[in-house]
Amino acid sequence: MKPQKAQNSSESTQKGKKSFVIRIDESTYKLLEKWANDEFRSVNGQIEYLLHQSLISSGRKKKE
């Protein structure tokens, strides 16, 4: 019997996204979680948004 792949990894591959582990301290996570909730995003979505905005503001990515 073949081992099954995790559903999340196949879903993220289908969307063209790469998953990885990030380690942050608990107080930073709580602040990020509150910020994400204030903007109606998940913590993961908030991290993605912040990285995207940082890449644009640094000139490393063109605004879409």
Automatic annotation (TrEMBL):
<dbReference type="InterPro" id="IPR013321">
    <property type="entry name" value="Arc_rbn_hlx_hlx"/>
</dbReference>
<dbReference type="InterPro" id="IPR010985">
    <property type="entry name" value="Ribbon_hlx_hlx"/>
</dbReference>
<protein>
    <recommendedName>
        <fullName>Arc-like DNA binding domain-containing protein</fullName>
    </recommendedName>
</protein>
<dbReference type="GO" id="GO:0006355">
    <property type="term" value="P:regulation of DNA-templated transcription"/>
</dbReference>
